Amino acid sequence: MMVILKHPQFDSQDAASNIRRLRSRRTRLPLLPVKSHSVVIDDRKTPSTSNPTKLAYTISIKEHLNHILNNPRLMEKMYFGRGIETPEKSELWHGDIWQRSPLYGDATISIDNGKTRSMTLFGKTLLICFQWNTLWENL
Amino acid sequence: MGEFVEFIDNSNQRERRFGRIEAIVSLLLPQDSDHPQDALKMSRLLRHNELGIYCSRDRSRRGHKELWMIEEDYQIIPPNHIIGRVLVWLKDVSRPEFYDFQISEILYRDAATNRIQIRPVNLRHRHPSEYVVAPNPSPVGNMKVFKFMIDIYNDDFGTFRNVYHSLGGIYIQIGNMPFNLRKQLKNHFIVGFIPFGGHFDDVMRPLLQELHQLEKGVAMDMDNETVWVIASIGLVTADMPQGNDLCDVKKQGALYGCRN
Predict the structure, then answer these.
(1) How many structural domains comprise chain B?
(2) Of A17, A64, B10, B96, most Cβ neighbours within 10 A?
(3) Are B152 and B174 in contact (CB under 8 A)?
């Protein structure tokens, strides 16, 4: 007890003031604060006897970001720079079709050391066409 | 960003053309991949004599005061190729007091027919500078600034094995993380659950004010240091049923659904 009290990082604010909280901390770590508000329930999906409103529970996004900011293992790997233009277009989003019309568009990418495969995003289907010799070598 | 400028053409160094700064990017050159260079991504504006078959007599007559937008063949140029700013009036926004050129039409390629089409300029893709909420500058000059991209992810899941009672989960992911971190379960942060029969909008409503605040910027503490955090939604991910719900589109069972 004395070791804990004299520890430089000990803060009396961290100590639980009631016995019930102390008991819950033995089994799990403290959660992020959860807020609740009532939402309207669609009565077509539920029996007529059930409540028209229910409580929905949310965790604040700001709280999440605060935790991410103070997590050095995450922060050192995150990227905050600007967009990178790469001369080697190897992914579909390196081309212009990204951010463009989702319905029609045409994009070609080159993978496998220059053996071209072309990709066409056309309506609902993503067609991937191989050059015949590439397919032949893969077989 | 989003400004119209005059710049030196990439393919022909002597030619000057007009364009719009689409983005400030880092250019990775294959011979020197460790040191990315500053570059500007430019979209081009065409003169009347570059319109090809659309160069009508009427357009040539307007040509000295008018340019045409095109949404392809973006150029990556070094910043020192910029000559100067030009004032351009896009004719679907309110008229500025002074302008050098006006734009009333846009050319784009129809992918189905692979032909160039000409359309009124209000049908263009808007540049982010035309609609994004401008964040406030940090209150103290030398504060560190962190910008987060939030990806909201929404999916329904069944809670019981043999009773239809599904809950909707709303999660956020941070777009700044590399993919190997982002896919880990511990880096999906839960925001809330939609109760059975509830609506996404109702659950998210109290969080909206917070998101508006984050778009403008908030001060946060990070390791005994106050930093300025700007975060906005960059992406909403959902599967087919939830995606249809969010877009107010009928689902696959509808007789005359939107996607048939």
Answers:
(1) 2
(2) A64
(3) no
